[in-house]
Structure formats: C-alpha cells, structure tokens
Amino acid sequence: MDPIKILTANIDKPNSTSIDVYIDGGGYKAVAAALKMKPEEVTQLVKDSEMRGRGGAGFPTGMKWGFVPKNAPKPTWLLCNADESEPGTFKDRVIMEKDPHLLIEGMIIAGYAIGSNPMSYIYIRGEFYYGAMVLEKALDEARNKGYLGKNILGSGFDFDITVARGAGAYICGEETGLIESVEGHRGQPRVKPPFPAVIGVFGGPTVVNNVETLACVPLIVNNGAEWFKSFGTPKNTGPKLYCVSGSIKKPGVYEFPMGINLKELIYDHCGGILGDRKLKAVIPGGASAPMLTPDEIDLPLNFDAVAKAGSMLGSAGIIVLDDSVCIVDAVWRLSKFFAHESCGQCTPCREGTNWLESVLDRIERGNGRPQDADLLLSMSDNIGGKSLCALGDAAIGPVISSVKKFRDEYLHHIEHKSCLPETVRYRRLDRAVPAH
Amino acid sequence: MADLHPDNPYAPDRFPDPKKTVEFPPEAKKKFDYILTRYPTKEACLLPTLHLVQEVWGWISPEAVLYVGTLLDLSPATVFGVVSFYNMYNQKPVGKYHLQVCTNLSCMVRRAYDIYDHLCDKLGVDPGATTKDGRYTVVEVECLGSCGTAPVVQVNNDYHENMDVAKMDALLAELK
Predict the structure, then answer these.
(1) Residue A365: which domain range?
(2) Do B4 and B14 touch, CB atoms closer than 8 A?
(3) CB contact at 8 A, B140 and A434
(4) Alpha-carbon distance A360 to A373, whole Å?
(5) Per the CB < 8 Å rule, is B113 touching A426?
(6) Disulfide: which of A10, A191, A427, B13 matches A99 by Cβ 3.0-4.6 Å?
(7) Domain map (residue ranges) of chain B
(8) Which residue of chain B comes nearest to A270, CA vs CA?
(9) B97-174, CATH topology level
(10) With contact defined as beta carbons under 8 Å apart, do B97 and B137 qualify?
(11) pLDDT, tens digit, 9 for 90 and up, residues A97-142
C-alpha cells in the first residue's frame, strides 16, 4: 500500500499555516458548500461516509452528531479535543501546527451541522504553546476574511472559536474530563449517563470531536461520502494518520488509507528496527493498548482488525520496542505514567495504578517475589471496569498483555534478580523518583 | 495547620500573607478582560486566568490564588484545588529556564534518561529542584506529544526535539 497525501496535502507547502495558501489549495470551499445545505443533510453526509472518530474509541462521527436533541432548552456546544496526551500519539499536533485552517473549516461545518451556539472551543493541551499560537493567528485570519463571526458568508449562521489551553492533565483528553476542564474545574470525569450529547458543557448538549476527525469533515463535504469510503474497508473508512515512534529507523507521522498492514508499515515504510535489532513488541494504539508480539503484527491497522487481535487501534500511536528493551522496565514506565495521571476520583484506579507501579518497580530492581506476576494480574482485575472512566482500563492494558505474553521475562527477573542478558539499561536505578 | 504538615506533598507551602497583595499590571488586566468575554461563566475563565498569572509572575503564589478568587468570585480553596490538580501550574517559583525532560516510553528507548541524569549531575540539582543561582529547574515530565522526534526537552514554552546529551550541552550554553 502506498502512502497518500490527503489530510497532509498542505503541510509541506511553504507558509502552510497562512489562510491565502489554504484558500489557493481549494480551502474554505467546503464551508460555502455546507452552508448551502440543510444541517441535517450535512450530518447525513458524514453518516454516509461511515467515518469513525479518530480520537481513540472509533465511534461513528455522524451518529454522534445525530444524538444531539433538536430544540434543547439550553444551547448546543461543539468542543474540539486537541488534548493529545496519549504516549505515542503526535498526529493532531501536525494538523494544528502545519494546517490549522483545515481544522477550523471542519469545526465551522460541524458547528453548523449540530446547530452549535455562536461559541465553541478548541481544548488544546497546555504544552502545545506553539500550536496554540498558530491557531490563534489562523483564527484571526479567518475572522478577518468573514469565515468566523456573525452571518458567515451571508448564510445567517454565527460561529466563533476560542482556543482553551489545558494545563497538563492526561485525563482532560477524556470527553467528560475535558468538559469539566472547560468549565474551569479539576478535570475529573463525570458519571455517564447523561451522555454529553444530552447534558455536556455548561449544561447544554455537547459534541466532542478529535482534531483529525474534524479535519476529515471538509474533505467529505468537498468530495462526497463515496469518495471517502473508497479508502479502507467497509466500516473502517477514510484516510488515517499513523504515528510511529520508539525503536524505529524512521519515526514520524504517516498517512495511509485506513488499514495499512502493521508489518508493512514498520519494515517497508519506516525502515525497520533501529540498529537492525530484533523486534520484541509493538504497542499499536498508544500507551493504553495491549502489546502485540512480533508474530501478531501481520494485521491491517483498522479499528476492527486490531480489536480482533486483542488490542486496540486507539489513536494509532504505534510504539515499537526492540529486544534491547526490558519489558518490565517499559511497562513500569507506562504504569508510572498512569499512576501520575489518575485523577484520584475512583479508589480502584487511584490506588491500583500506584500499586502496579510499585510492584513493577520492585520486580525491575530484583526484589520481585515468586507470586508477583500473578499479583499483577489480580490487581489489574481489581482495577478494570471498576472506575468511572477508561483510565483504569487503559492502565491495565500493557500490564495484562505483557504478563501474559512475556511471562518468561517476568519470571527471569524474579528468579535471577536481573534483566535478560540482551537488554540494555535505559535508566539509572539509583536515581530517586520524585513522588507524584 | 494540619494542611501544612511537612509530610503532606499536596499542601501549599504556606498560607497567603495578608500584608502582601498582588494585582495584574495594566497589560495583563487587558488580557484578563478579554478572557472574560470568551466564556459564558466566570468560573470557566479560571484556567486561562491562571495561565495569565503564571505568565506575569512565573508561578502561582498563595497571594495570587486569593487574588484570582476575588476576580472570579471563587473561594481560594476552589482555586487552589484547580492549581494543584494541573501539572503546569507551578506552586513554587521555578528557575529562569524550566528544563522539562520527557522520559515516557518513546523518549526513554531513545535514551531520554541519559539527558535527564546528565542535567541533574551537571547542574548539581535533585529532580524538581532549582539551581542556587535561580537559573535552571530540572524536572521529568510525562509524554509531551512529540514521540516522533524523541527525545524531547521542553524549555519554558519551547520544544527542543531529537535531543541527545551533546545537543543538550550546546543548548545549555545558549541559555544564560
């Protein structure tokens, strides 16, 4: 399969963030076309394209828009989820920093389709300071050209966008955590139901869409649902950005029709494993996706195929690990992340993620006990499905999959009090780890 | 005074000093007034206002917590609850250069911990601490969303990508 340039069509152009370059390349035509349609027709078009959300869960976007009740007592809101914090994921940043108008155009169309009130927010993670600056400048340009503000292109539709910066919390990438954060609260997820489509931000019906999802919308409006479906396979349609990182020769963002073969992506397009070492494990969908072993990677990267293989495509953040990486150390690092990012609301997740981290740390340091591998599984069982949001389930993904697939390595650690001989130390064990 | 117990890592360093008051300079006040026009409730302005506080003073002092509370009609406890929840709000003053080394998995397998250890050793500071001259603070941070160009070090607001120990030394020489 050859790489394509559809979502990334503009990013290599000089001055790609300017509105003139974007309009020269056919930009903002989709807004004009969409505003001539009825909002329901736009939603139907996105439904027909069978696009699934690019944020991680893969929920059909058109269906999400369709859940927004008509004539709700409170105004409807559109939020763009640009809180890209999943380790291994860096695709939305490319769109925001290199082609911000594609996102803005997508938001105007989405806002029109769901009947959004005149204000909407791009919730961008606080660390993306540069991205926020690029977006602010692009928004100013769009306002000056009349694509944002009152009565857009004479259609009577009012719409504006504000960049809301997060402040360093992974949990705010969770839909309801994001809503809480936009309201000015601690980003602790809410109980569902009611779902955001009914009661979301400021009490109104709310649609939260990922950056890449919204960036696909102008493409669908311009080229039609059938064109969009010509990429990928039924129910897994459209162009898709894949982020490849870790022990790989050519890391980066790659665009393919949905469903590129993982093995082909790693060896043919990314140049293979760093230092020509042996592949040990692949995390296919960001830190929370269960690991795959080298003999499981011959599979198409779409939502259904990866789920069938016992993992998830998630945000398509592919982390490649070679045989110099100690699996226990790698999983410890991910568990440290989840322990740090647990919001503290639900006990199983708040306490459990810390326990996972400390048991993994003691195995890594050679203080593991014979029952520790099973202890990790039993602790995971006490976290999974027992908290409000999916962070707890995410935290146990790498733990369960690694204990099941690399049990020998865990047992080697516990028995010999050391890593496998071919592994390399990536961190010093004598450095104190600050509390989080 | 239980909240200020030395073993409680979540406690503020001290209570606000009633004799010290803080106020936005006119430029920041203008930005604050603009923020108020962008959100439907005052409470929703809290995160951007705290970013503004940090832009002006470099950290969020107990006095600033009180001040933000009066600006937005929120209790100091609510404001501090938000400050302490989010990573990027500094509850202590940080150095002129805030060196934030990502050590999450993709950066780790590209030897990010070497950079982190090197910084701690070279500058003679513990993780999270500031050098005596107030110039550098070294911290380990979670994924910065730049795994394709790992390892990455964020200095204040700027990303430095594809780093290694030699490049870090060269960068340090520029950060005077």
Answers:
(1) 327-416
(2) yes
(3) yes
(4) 9
(5) yes
(6) A10
(7) 2-85, 97-174
(8) B148
(9) Glutaredoxin (3.40.30)
(10) yes
(11) 999 999 999 999 999 999 999 999 999 999 999 999 999 999 999 9
- CATH at A150: 3.40.50.11540
Nearest chain A residue to B38, by CA = A162
Which residues, other chains included, contact B19 with Cβ-Cβ below 8 Å and sequence gap of 6+?
Answer: none
Total domains, chain A: 3
Residues 6+ apart with CB under 8 A from B70: none
Exposed, middle or buried, B143 (CB in 10 Å: 0-12/13-18/19+)? buried
Question: What is the pairing mode between strands A77-82 and A119-124?
Answer: parallel
* Shortest Cα distance, chain A CAs vs residue B17, angstroms: 25
The architecture of the domain spanning B2-85 is Orthogonal Bundle (1.10)
Residue A116 structure tokens: 């959004």
| pTM for the whole structure | 0.95
Please give the single-letter amino acid code of residue B71: L
Residues from chain B that touch A246, judged by Cβ atoms under 8 A, are 105-106, 109-110, 147, 150
Q: For residue A300, say if its preceding peptide bond is cis, omega within 30 degrees of 0.
A: no
CB pair distance less than 8 Å for A127 and B88: yes
Average pLDDT of the residues of chain A:
95
CB contact B145 to A (< 8 Å): yes
* Residue A224 and residue A238 share a domain: no
Contact B89/A167, CB-based, under 8 Å? yes
Write down the residue that tokens 């390399």 correspond to. A424
As a whole number of angstroms, the distance between CA B48 and CA A301 comes to 38
